[in-house]
Amino acid sequence: MPKMKTKSGAKKRFKITGSGKVKTGQANKRHGMIKRTKKQIRQSRGTTVAFKTDGENIKKYWMPNG
Predict the structure, then answer these.
(1) How far apart are CA 24 and CA 12, in angstroms?
(2) Which of 3, 2, 4, 20 is nearest to 61 (CA)?
(3) pLDDT digit string (tens) for 21-44?
(4) Spatial CB neighbours of 42, under 8 Å, sequence gap ≥ 6
(5) Is residue 24 part of a domain?
(6) Which residue ranges have biased composition labelled Basic residues (predicted)?
(7) Range(s) of the domain holding residue 12
């Protein structure tokens, strides 16, 4: 039986925190900034923790060794 490999795209996009949560970049930052308020743009800087169910799926299917 071969080893389970981490999906290389997931390696670049997600990190697993010490408590097992999945940390990811903020969404909706690629284009269309002109129609968003300055507050929305400011608040979507940096990273965020994925929702619990999304994080479980990421760890199960794409980052089994994470």
Answers:
(1) 10
(2) 4
(3) 999 999 999 999 999 999 999 999
(4) none
(5) yes
(6) 1-15, 28-42
(7) 8-62
The mean pLDDT of the chain is: 94
**Residue 12: per-residue pLDDT:** 95
23 contacts 46 by C-beta, under 8 angstroms: no
CA dist., res. 56 & res. 54, Å (int): 5
In this structure, is residue 47 part of a structural domain? yes
Q: What is this structure's pTM? A: 0.82
Q: Provide the number of structural domains found in the chain.
A: 1
Judge whether 1 lies within some domain: no
